[in-house]
Design a protein that fits this description.
With 112 residues, the chain is mainly α. The protein has one domain. 82% of the residues lie in helices and 0% in strands. The chain is elongated.
């Protein structure tokens, strides 16, 4: 089972890999596949609201498309990379908001 922290770490690693000098490397592709896997797993195993699952779905779709493109065409895929970065950024923001909300609820529960 995957948790939000692991999901956030995978998204951050994918974002860093896409900012690397060579986004076409096998190491980058491996990181992107892992982020895609974690997002897909979280989508099916963690109870979540629609905005979070929509962000996860966007990451799965864009990273699948990007990995396929990087594996078949060695030229840089700037448009697909930018699209994937946007999806990852959206997922990161949504995950961080979810973490803050959970912490706030826990803090309020302790005070009650």
């Amino acid at each position: 089972m995957v948790g939000i922290n692991e999901e956030l770490e995978a998204a951050e690693a994918a974002k860093a890999a896409l900012s690397a000098i060579n986004p076409n490397s096998q190491a980058t592709i491996r990181i992107l596949r892992q982020a895609k896997y974690v997002a897909a797993l979280a989508m099916t195993t963690l109870p979540s609201d629609k905005p979070l699952n929509d962000a996860r779905h966007a990451v799965v779709i864009t990273l699948s498309d990007l990995v396929r493109a990087l594996e078949t065409d060695p030229t840089p895929q700037f448009e697909k990379i930018d699209t994937a970065k946007g999806a990852i950024r959206s997922l990161e923001w949504t995950l961080k908001a979810r973490q803050e909300l959970r912490l706030r609820c826990l803090a309020e529960g302790d005070q009650a």
